[in-house]
Structure formats: C-alpha cells, structure tokens
Design goal:
Blueprint lengths: L1 H9 L2 H5 L4 E6 L10 H18 L5 E8 L4 E8 L33 H11 L3 E7 L3 E9 L27 H6 L10 E5 L3 H11 L4 E5 L2 H11 L3 E5 L7 H10 L8 E5 L4 H9 L4 E4 L4 H21 L19 H22 L8 H8 L3 H12 L3 H16 L7 H7 L5 H12 L9
Parallel strand pairs: 1-2, 6-7, 6-8, 8-9, 9-10
Antiparallel strand pairs: 2-3, 3-5, 4-5
Length: 445
C-alpha cells in the first residue's frame, strides 16, 4: 500500500514543478501490507493531490504524512499551504457542487463534485475522511483506512500509467480533457457548456456526451467568444465565473443578433429567489439549482429544444416571408420575447433580400457582409429559426414574392421570374411547383 501511495504522490511532481511547489513525504511506518482497491485509491488520491496543487500558491509546500494508528488504521494526511477555507464553509465542502467562493466572479475553482466523490469512495472502503483548515495557512485532508489482510497477496499487479493520474481530475490538462469530444457529429445538437470548474464540467460531460455534441468554455468571456463562433443549439452556463459571470454572459448573448435565439440554462448553487429572478431578467430560459439529478438536467434540455422547435413552427411557411414589425406584449413570456426578438432579425434579413431581389447572381457572402455575420453563423441562425438553410430560405423568399406578383394579370410569368432573381423561367416553374404543389400558371386562377 505504501509503495502505491508513494507512486501516486510522486506522479504529481512534474505538475507541482510547473508552479515551483515542493512536495515532501513524511512516513512514520516503513511498511504496510493491507487490502486496498487500486482504482478507488487512485481516484481518491489523484483528486486530493491535484486539489492541493491547484490551491497552493507558487513556490510553497505540500506535505504527505503516513502513519499507522493504535486502532490498526492507516492514516494519510495531505497538507497544502494555500489560503485555507473559511470555518463556516468546512461542514459543506463534501457536498456535491458546493462552491467555497460564492462571489459572482470567483478567481479560483471550487471543489465541484471531486470531494463529494472522494468521500463516497473512502466510505466504500470503510474509511473516513475529514478536513481541517486555517485561513492564511492552509488545508489538510486526513483519511483513515482500516488495515485488513483478507485478500490474497499480489506482488506483481502492474501499476497504472503515470500519465493517467490527473485524467479523472485534470488541472494543467483540463483544456485537453474537455475538448476531447469536440469532433463534429451532424446528427447531434450542439451544446456549449460554460463552466470554470473542471469537476463540474466533466460531470456534465458524463451526463450529456451521448446525446449532444459538446463544446466547453472555462470562463464567461471564452463562453461568449465560443457561442458567437459556434452558434450552438443550446447553452449551459454556470453563474459564478471569473471575468464575466453567468448573468453577464446571458445578457450579452441574448442581445447579440448572432446568438439571441439560443436557449440558455443557468446553473448555480445560489437558490434564493432574487438570484433566480435576476437570471430570468437577463434572459435565461431556465434556472437549475446545484446539485441536480442528471435526469432533471436532461428533461430541462429536452424542453428547451422543444421551445426552439416552437420558434421554427412560428416562422414556418409563408409567415417568415411576410413579416411585419411587432409590438412586444407587456408583460411578455420568454417565448413571446424570443419571437419578438427573432422577428426583428428576420425582418432585417428580408429587407436585404428585397434589396437584391432581382439579382440572379446574389451570393450568400453578400448577405453575410450586409449582416456582419460569417456564413456558418448565418446558416446556423437561419436554420435554428426556420429549419431551412440560408440558400433554401433565399429561394423560398423569392418564390413567395413571385406568388404575390402572379395576382397581377398584367405581369408575365417570365417577367416575374426575372424580377425575383430567376434567370431561367423553366427552372423557376419547377421550383415554384416544388414549393407550392402547382405551377405558376395555376396560381393566376
């Protein structure tokens, strides 16, 4: 057991060196042969070691103390020399998702689900874990494990790959761990997770990666930048983050034309009504309290995806091509606000299409330039609102304009086709029939 613990601890030397942290082992017992679960011990100590490095300032120390107790237990204590934890927070740090720093723009990560999982695993091994901390001096975690010898002795079981030590609870490699799923799968909805706590982000990844195409951002500003770049189908954002909090992220994205249509769920441990109202006022579509059950989150996401489909239904068919300026109802529901906001955007698009209506050579790049959007941004925005690609939307818009013009018997079908941007009247007739189920001539009757 002692060889294995030393091995785990030493595997973090290179990570500690990146912060010039010195790690030392004080071992009061030379040997300890006992039963232990290698995988559980690895997860427990990888979490505690990485946390110790995470919260210890550059150039300080981390100590590991190992001893046998009179009660025939193995005592393992990990001491860091960080800023410590306030006394009022100590009873809660093993609660899932509890954040020690409750400021809206915390600069350090909280404990996430890592310590909750650690406690569960220690108890599964019939052990105990406790925490002591002094503000300004540091924090220590003490684990007591019963020493038993019931299992057969195994001397040649291979030790795990050292590179895997930080995989479950990454620190320096967190960006790599969270970008591993960013391989495009067109069959899945894009979900952007804005979460600075790696433990929580990994938990969300485990809950959602089979259903959604996941992308990650680890700060509010990075989340805004990625949302504008990717135009995802849905966003989950923590409230408490550095630089920009979740309220600021939501407000910015809901007022940004390229992302205003995207449903946003805010995650927070702050459950008071004032915080919830603040989130909704900033445009959040849902507010989910930590801790939450995976099923609860999945249902919320499914409902928001349904609300996006309702938006598509609202702008389906002829309605999108015959929009009028709307007056927002007061008070307005979240759906009504969304419809009003996106109605204004589609009106802008339609005015641009009117401007170039007779231009048969109009390309998507010109429309994008007029809207100050990239082609991928415009494609995903139009697709989210209407269910059509921008090319299909442009074609349908021209055909609906043509249908109106056909009511004037003085205009020939060929002239109408040219007027709405079709240089080939036979191609126009085929597309018209595909759109309306009958040829242009039949719509004169």
């Amino acid at each position: 057991m002692l060889i294995y613990i030393n091995y785990l601890f030493q595997s973090f030397h290179s990570l500690a060196e990146t912060k010039a942290i010195k790690i030392e082992i004080v071992q009061e017992t030379a040997t300890c042969i006992m039963d232990f679960d290698q995988e559980k011990i690895q997860v427990v100590f990888s979490n505690l070691f990485s946390n110790a490095i995470k919260f210890t300032p550059n150039g300080r120390f981390i100590h590991l103390f190992i001893a046998k107790t009179k009660e025939n237990k193995l005592s393992i204590k990990i001491n860091d020399t960080g800023s410590g934890i306030p006394k009022a927070d100590l009873p809660y740090i093993f609660d899932r998702f509890y954040q020690v720093d409750d400021s809206a723009t915390r600069q350090g990560e909280g404990t996430g689900i890592g310590l909750a999982l650690t406690k569960e695993l220690v108890e599964l091994m019939n052990g105990t874990i406790k925490v002591d901390s002094v503000l300004g001096k540091g924090t220590s975690f003490t684990i007591l494990l019963p020493i038993t010898n019931k299992a057969p002795l195994i001397n040649n079981k291979p030790l795990p790959d050292p590179s895997a030590m930080t995989r479950a609870f990454p620190l320096a490699t967190s960006t790599t761990a969270l970008s591993a799923t960013e391989k495009e799968d067109p069959t899945k909805d894009r979900l952007l997770i804005i979460e600075d706590n790696v433990d929580v982000a990994l938990y969300l990844k485990d809950c959602l990666e089979t259903t959604y195409q996941l992308y990650f951002a680890q700060s509010g500003q990075e989340g805004i930048d990625k949302a504008i770049q990717l135009v995802p189908d849905i966003i989950i954002s923590d409230v408490m983050m550095p630089k920009k909090d979740g309220f600021e992220v939501t407000q910015y994205l809901k007022n940004e034309e390229r992302t205003s249509h995207i449903p946003i769920i805010l995650l927070t441990a702050k459950a008071d009504i004032a915080s919830k109202i603040k989130g909704l006022e900033h445009g959040a579509d849902a507010y989910l309290k930590k801790p939450f059950l995976p099923k609860e989150l999945q249902v919320r996401l499914e409902k928001l995806v349904e609300s996006r489909r309702k938006l598509q239904t609202h702008f389906a068919g002829a309605k999108a091509y015959n929009l009028q300026k709307m007056v927002a109802p007061k008070p307005a529901t979240t759906v009504q606000k969304s419809i009003h906001r996106e109605n204004a955007f589609l009106l802008k698009v339609n005015k641009i299409l009117d401007k170039y209506l007779s231009d048969a050579d109009l390309d998507i790049a010109t429309i994008c330039q007029e809207l100050y959007m990239s082609q991928s941004q415009l494609y995903r925005k139009i697709k989210a609102l209407t269910g059509k690609s921008i090319v299909a939307y442009l074609r349908a818009y021209r055909l609906h304009k043509a249908k109106k013009l056909l009511q004037d018997p003085k205009k020939s079908i060929t002239d109408i086709a040219y007027y709405v941007g079709f240089s080939d009247s036979r191609y126009f007739s085929r597309q018209f029939s595909n759109e309306f189920g009958s040829p242009p001539r039949a719509n004169r009757d």
